[in-house]
Amino acid sequence: MSIPSKVVIATRGSALALWQAHHVKARLEAVAPGIEVTLNIIKTSGDKILDVPLAKVGGKGLFVKEIEQALVDNEADLAVHSMKDVPAELAPGLTLCAVSTREVPWDALCARASVTVETLAQGAKVGTSSMRRQCQLLAKRPDLQIAMLRGNVPTRLKKLDDGEFEAIVLAAAGLHRLGLADRITQLLPLELSIPAVAQGVLAIEIRDGDTPVQDLIRKAIHDEPTYAKMLAERAFLAKMGGSCQTPLAAHAVDEAGGLKLIGMCGMPDGTRILKAEVSGVVSDAQKLGVALGEELLRQGAADILAATKL
Questions:
Q1: The pLDDT of residue 64 is above 90
Q2: The model's pTM
Q3: Which fold has domain 232-308?
C-alpha cells in the first residue's frame, strides 16, 4: 500500500465536527506513524444560516457542499461528515470510501427535569430542527409545542438551560462523543422515534480514484457491518426521493444472519405516519432499502411526499 506523507482533512468548525475530525486524524496516525495530518476548517452555509429552519433553506446538504468543494479544489484530501448530513447524491467526482463503527444511534430527550416524552407537561415547548423528530413526537404527543432549535450542541443545551424550552431532542451520538451523555434524560426507543438515516455514523468522503488515501482510510476506520446497514438506509432515502421537508427515517439492525430495516414516512404535524419493515441477507442491503421504500409507497407515502413538497 502506497501511504501518502501528508493528508488534509476538511471539516466544519463546531465542537462535534472537530471531535470527529480529530478522531479520524488519530486513527490515521495510528496506522501510519509519521504521517502529517492537518485540518482545513470550513464554515458552511449551514453554520452561517441559523435563524431559518433547515428544511426551508436546503436541508442538511448545507453542511456538506462547501466541504465537498474543498475536495474538488484539491484544498483537502478527505472530508469527515456526520453521515446523516450527507445528501443521497454526492458532488460529481467524489465518493464515500469508508464509514466508522456506529455510535449510539438513538434520539435523546434532554430536559432540566427528570421527565420522558410521555410525562412532559401538557403543552410543553420542545426544541428540535428536525421534521423527522417533530413528526414522531407529535404522533405520540400532539399537545406538545414544537419550536425551531438551531445551532451546535453546546448552543442548543444552553438554550435549554436558559429556559427557552422545557426539553430539546438531540442525537445521542453527538452527546456521547462530546462527553455530554449525562445530559440525556431519555433515550427515545425505536418504537417512539426511528433515527435519521445513518445517524451515529461518520462518513469519509474523498475524490474518485485517490487510491492511496482510500486504502489508508479503509485500513484506519472502515467498518463493513456498519457500511452494509448504511447502504440499506441510504437506498431507502434515495428511493423515497423526499425533500428535506418530508419526515423520513430508516434504521437497520442485525437479524439472524441478515438485516432488518425499519422505516417511516409521515406528515410534519404527526397526523399521518406510515411505518414498515423488511428483512433479508446482508448482501442485498441496497435492495432492502428499495423494497422498504416500495412498501411505504404502497401504503400511500406518495401522497405524503407530494404534500410536503408543496
A1: no
A2: 0.90
A3: Double Stranded RNA Binding Domain (3.30.160)
